[in-house]
């Protein structure tokens, strides 16, 4: 029953634009209009992207952190895969399989 409700909600969400009578209904939907203007982001300096001013040390430090981050997950896999983890086995009464 729960799966049917989730499926119905997802189908309604995807089919809602098709239920509009005119294209004007589709284009007029959205948040209400306000008189307050949007902020101008022109005063914020560009620190990412093609104009970023990154020195060699900052770049290499970033690569080091990236390697450490993904290396940690590789270490966890190797630690458990090759049997270095020394935990007690799960008692038979706790397992969920028959």
Task: Describe the protein in words.
With 98 residues, the chain is mainly alpha-helical. The chain has a domain of 25 residues. Helices cover 47% and strands 0% of the residues. The protein is flat, with a radius of gyration of 27 Å. It starts with a helix and ends in a 17-residue tail after the last helix. The mean pLDDT is 81.
Question: How do the helices and strands line up, and which of them pair or pack?
Answer:
Layout: H1 2-15, H2 23-28, H3 56-81
SS summary, helix count: 3
Give start-end ranges of low-pLDDT stretches.
Answer: none
Number of strands: 0
Strand content: under 5%
Radius of gyration: 27 Å
Overall geometry comes to flat
Topology as a string of helices (H) and strands (E)? HHH
Distance separating the two termini: 27 Å
Return the structural class.
Answer: mainly alpha
State the helicity in percent bands: 40-55%
Mean pLDDT: 81
Biggest sheet, in brief? none
């Amino acid at each position: 029953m729960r799966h049917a409700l989730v499926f119905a909600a997802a189908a309604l969400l995807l089919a809602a634009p098709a239920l509009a009578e005119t294209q004007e209904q589709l284009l007029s939907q959205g948040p209400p209009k306000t008189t307050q203007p949007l902020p101008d982001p022109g005063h914020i300096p560009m620190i990412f992207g093609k104009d970023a001013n990154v020195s060699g040390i900052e770049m290499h430090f970033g690569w080091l952190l990236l390697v450490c981050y993904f290396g940690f997950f590789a270490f966890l896999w190797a630690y458990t895969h090759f049997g270095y983890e020394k935990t007690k086995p799960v008692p038979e009464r706790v397992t969920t399989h028959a």
